Amino acid sequence: xxxATVKKILNARVYGAARETPISSAPLLSRRFNNKIxxxxxxxxxxxxxxxxxxxxxxxQLTEEQxxxxxxxxxxxxxxxxxxxxxxxxxxxxxxxxxxxxxEIKVQAVRGWGAKVVLKGDAFAAAxxxxxxxxxxxxxTYIPPFDDIDVIAGQGTIAVEMLRQxxxxxxxxxxxxxxxxxxxxxxxxxxxxxxxxxxxxxESEDSACLKxxxxxxxxxxxxxxxxxxxxxxxxxxxxxxFSIIQGLVDDVITVNADEMCAAVKDxxxxxxxxxxxxxxLSLAGLKKYVQQTGVEGQTxxxxxxxxNINFDRLQHIAERASLGEQREAILAVTxxxxxxxxxxxxxxxxxxxxxxxxxxxxxxxxxxxxxxVQVKPGGEDRLAVIEKLEEAGYQVEDLTDNELAKLHTRxxxxxxxxxxxxxxxxxxEFPERPGALMxxxxxxxxxxxxxxxxxRNHGAAYGRVLVGMQVPNGxxxxxxxxxxxxxYRYWKESDNPAYRxxxx
Length: 504
Fold this sequence. Notes:
Rossmann fold; 4-stranded parallel beta sheet; single chain; globular; pyridoxal phosphate binding
């Protein structure tokens, strides 16, 4: 099967639409991590993503009858743009079914290539199901985003270019994983020609369908999929990709949202390109690999696989990048409620930069402050700060990895309520579409009172929402039954220290 896949890659026809992209060096990253780090620039494709390769190659395999009826795909954006461009160049009608959470920049780009866009559902699965309905009605040919050998072969041409452009020794190649088409294509070619090169898949930790399949020894469907990196938000690894990946991949690494944000910043600083979060995924995995293994003096290559990002989402990415690099500690510190306490606290910190400070009067004896402190990457410096504060007699709670603190507490004003009452606190992800809030409110029981509400969105596919609810005693044991019926992802936060110290 490996040899057959490599032959398909070598015979793939992609350059009628795609271009050969360069490999950029990353001197800042290379010096920082004591390795030679290289970035394959698929963000420079005409559709700003590698997906044009697989889509165009698949289109070249169609019969004239299939072209006459038109093509269809379900996609969160990058495959859609690739197919739309390929169809326009070939004069073929294209219909793209996209989840309603798809960033507007991708929707407009698909329409700009002349394809008809149908928005359906809040996730890829719903879009894919509707695409099948349209196929039954109109006879369109479905062009899969990843689960197809011709699509995989098109993506594999990236590896052909990489090994030809950089014939010197390469130690490890890092590849982003969504449905697995890109990883399967790169793996097949690299392992056939240069089996000594390690190839590592990188997934977002909240959509790690490949890691789940590797652990289980078979393809599994994730119960929930996070959409922070919507380009890789896939619940199940593709059948054809998995058959290639399973016996070849050297490892699978997962990274979190903050680590992806830090990688976006890293790519910008070294290349001045601004990748989408999934486009920076492989670099985030590369950095984590170096930190975990301590390798030095090696040649490591990753792929910037996409740059279709909403401009207004950059604020959130910039905000979280320092956390992803572990350059900021977020702490809750208890200080005396008396004049000069903050000055004394800052004197204890020494010459460190205070990046954020939040305070509201609580009582006459003590105050809880929310403080951000600039620290060195790696985590050890953060622990040193905490230890120094505790030695000076301060009570410290480390909130650096606390999602409630990062997403909501640092932005909330108003402090505590003036009187005590019982409330249930939950953090939600609302799909970013009209009617999402009304759907939430309508499905809550009529006698529940909302006592706190905080919403944040920076151009992402979903809104981050914190909700406090006063629930009658008789309903409290059934709260999550009602929330499950709404269908949005949620986390209970009633016992979160960020809530207890600043809002309860």
